[in-house]
Amino acid sequence: IRLSAPAAIQVTVRDALNQALDEELERDERVFLLGEEVAQYDGAYKISRGLWKKYGDKRVIDTPISEMGFTGIAVGAAMAGLRPVCEFMTFNFSMQAIDQVINSAAKTCYMSAGSIAVPIVFRGPNGASAGVAAQHSQCFAAWYGHCPGLKVVSPWSSEDAKGLLKASIRDDNPVVMLENELLYGVPFEMSEQAQSKDFIVPIGKAKIERQGTHVTLVSHSRPVGHCLEAAAVLAKEGVECEVINLRTIRPMDIETVEASVVKTNHLVTVEGGWPQFGVGAEICARIMEGSAFNYLDAPAVRVTGADVPMPYAKILEDNCIPQVKDIIFAVKKALNI
Amino acid sequence: MVASRNYADFASEATFEIKKCDLHRLEEGPSTTAVMTREEGLHYYKTMQTIRRMELKSDQLYKQKIIRGFCHLYDGQEACCVGIEAAIKPTDHVITAYRAHGFTYARGVPVREILAELTGRKGGCVKGKGGSMHMYTKNFYGGNGIVGAQVPLGAGIALACKYFGKNEICLTLYGDGAANQGQIFETYNMAALWKLPCIFICENNRYGMGTSVERAAASTDYYRRGDFIPGFRVDGMDILCVREAAKFAADYCRSGKGPIVMELQTYRYHGHSMSDPGISYRTREEIQEVRSKSDPITLLKDRMVNNNLASIEELKEIDVAVRKEIEEAAQFATTDPEPPLEELGNHIYFNEPPFEVRGPNQWIRYKSVS
């Protein structure tokens, strides 16, 4: 007799991404992966483990350390009809190539009045890791989320990771997928449906991870987990948080946030990136502009990374990223309790 | 037609001695003789003359403020794009930088659509969305505004050519100014490593904006800058030199040997763009000297007349026809309506269901259709 959910299994984010790549490489021969160490090293973070062995040099390509060059090559390949997945070892290195992402990839469909498509995925770990210091810890959600012509996704769970990567590869537009290195090893339950080869998480739709009535917590990527932890603690005090996992930064599903705020009358945004011009700032601005404003009983509160370059020492680093206690504090401020 | 001579009076073709190319890591270079038929000659002449007059018309329209923004003209360099096009197939791929009107025409976009794009009208080849630096057509990827960025793109197109295995190649053009961009060296490395069927073509017109090659480059032998990639240097003012060179380079790439670098020594009569008179960093005498001794259209005309491939009258008739075509195109470009406001939101994404795009404030929204 089976008492648990039918055939749900624990899958790490890493394995979910690996499955997505494997399935999409198999499904469409125009799909290929390039980046540093993606082939023979099995991926700097082992996301592409086994793929080079299975698909060979044509489909999984190791590049020299030349971000601007190989990103441009990937974009050109997409313009000519291939479907590249371009890996940045971390998104910090994408800054070297950002001109190709924005000026060559994002804008070309518009400039060409729709005659040239750029079906490319840029993916890799984004944001803070652990002890990697200032140059390796930046969050690029706001930077890429700023630009029309791009789609930007930010998975949290394994289901998010697999479904969004598959959706991104099948999308005919340039998609930036912001993964999180600290999540790679974390297992999540994946339903039978999510294990299917055609499982897609639609781009542009947020997910309500937890229903609540007193306050709306909106987040993306790893902080979604912190929000759920905070919600569990707050529930014991009688505060029920609705936790929204944005999943997509651009186009942002503000409608789901609005509907939630109309219900709860309180809003707290949580992100790992810096506060100025961040994802939370955008959410607050849009809530102000929309139907939900009149339902707010208090100003929205943002929880973000500290407004400094990331320091190295653990005690400093720990206090630069939003922790569960910061989220709880913010909720209580919003609710004035 | 008032040609005073019957076409049967002309030779059907002639053979020309052309300049030998300087070689880098090559045992032999392009042929030093070129055969040109009468039909080819007339076609090259008409095409180059059309580009010349189109660019001069653009100059005029710009000064009348009917063309706005950036306008980088190609007059003087016509032999490059026409010679290249003569050597390759329509199924080959071309990408260049912002001085792109000549290639846009050579790759098949009609003059009226080029001029209407410059004047920002809905009949422009990209509906007025791109402008001077962003014109595209089949197997022509622009028109790119960021100096040097088109070079990795071109190598990527070449990668796709190799991937699909249809024996196509990509010609990737850049200027003497762009030749110092780091991403070009990154691209050389990967193109050579992966044997991409990419012809890197440096259109060396001696000046990167206002900076002469001597002031910008420690080595002005642009055909050698690919180091481990073979290269050669070509007289870019002689259309037959360009054609033979491009044929040689195309054969090289198609044979699977990998990339090759081709430097075209050419010249632009206009300044860098319409806002540059082009005389603060070079002399009027220099410009005049090139015009009188090396003009690509004059060179071709002299060759044809002196070798009995065409008469002066016949070529004059072509001039008249070209002028008429340009006038009509300009008429279209100045009377066609601007794109409708609705166009503002379109083509953000490809193959996407319609959605809304925000305007200057939250109440102004535009529909975005793919």
UniProtKB/TrEMBL annotation, chain A:
General function of this protein: The pyruvate dehydrogenase complex catalyzes the overall conversion of pyruvate to acetyl-CoA and CO2. The pyruvate dehydrogenase complex catalyzes the overall conversion of pyruvate to acetyl-CoA and CO(2), and thereby links the glycolytic pathway to the tricarboxylic cycle.
GO cellular component assignments: mitochondrion; pyruvate dehydrogenase complex
MF annotations from Gene Ontology: metal ion binding; pyruvate dehydrogenase (acetyl-transferring) activity
Entry keyword annotation includes Transit peptide: yes
EC number(s) per entry: 1.2.4.1
GO biological process, one term: glucose metabolic process
Top-level lineage group: Eukaryota
TM segment ranges: none
Primary location class: mitochondrion
Cofactor(s) listed: thiamine diphosphate
Keywords noted in UniProt: Carbohydrate metabolism, Glucose metabolism, Metal-binding, Mitochondrion, Oxidoreductase, Potassium, Pyruvate, Thiamine pyrophosphate, Transit peptide
Catalytic activity: N(6)-[(R)-lipoyl]-L-lysyl-[protein] + pyruvate + H(+) = N(6)-[(R)-S(8)-acetyldihydrolipoyl]-L-lysyl-[protein] + CO2
Upper classification of the organism: Eukaryota, Metazoa, Chordata, Craniata, Vertebrata
Group of enzyme by EC: oxidoreductase
Domain Transketolase-like pyrimidine-binding: 11-186
Protein name from the UniProt record: Pyruvate dehydrogenase E1 component subunit beta
Subunit structure: Heterotetramer of two PDHA1 and two PDHB subunits. The heterotetramer interacts with DLAT, and is part of the multimeric pyruvate dehydrogenase complex that contains multiple copies of pyruvate dehydrogenase (E1), dihydrolipoamide acetyltransferase (DLAT, E2) and lipoamide dehydrogenase (DLD, E3). These subunits are bound to an inner core composed of about 48 DLAT and 12 PDHX molecules. Interacts with DLAT.
Subcellular location: Mitochondrion
Pfam families noted in UniProt: Transket_pyr, Transketolase_C
TrEMBL record, chain B:
Cofactor(s), names only, from the UniProt record: thiamine diphosphate; Mg(2+)
Listed Gene3D superfamilies: 3.40.50.970
Domain named Dehydrogenase E1 component: residues: 47-341
EC number: 1.2.4.1
UniProt keyword terms in alphabetical order: Carbohydrate metabolism, Glucose metabolism, Magnesium, Metal-binding, Mitochondrion, Oxidoreductase, Phosphoprotein, Pyruvate, Thiamine pyrophosphate, Transit peptide
GO function term, MF aspect, one: pyruvate dehydrogenase (acetyl-transferring) activity
Catalysis performed (reactions): N(6)-[(R)-lipoyl]-L-lysyl-[protein] + pyruvate + H(+) = N(6)-[(R)-S(8)-acetyldihydrolipoyl]-L-lysyl-[protein] + CO2
CC annotations in GO: mitochondrial matrix
Top-rank lineage group of the source organism: Eukaryota
InterPro entries attached to this UniProt entry: DH_E1, PDH_E1_Alpha_Subunit, Pyrv_DH_E1_asu_subgrp-y, THDP-binding
Protein localization: Mitochondrion matrix
GO BP term, pick one: glucose metabolic process
NCBIfam families (UniProt xref): PDH_E1_alph_y (TIGR03182)
Known function: The pyruvate dehydrogenase complex catalyzes the overall conversion of pyruvate to acetyl-CoA and CO(2), and thereby links the glycolytic pathway to the tricarboxylic cycle.
Protein name: Pyruvate dehydrogenase E1 component subunit alpha
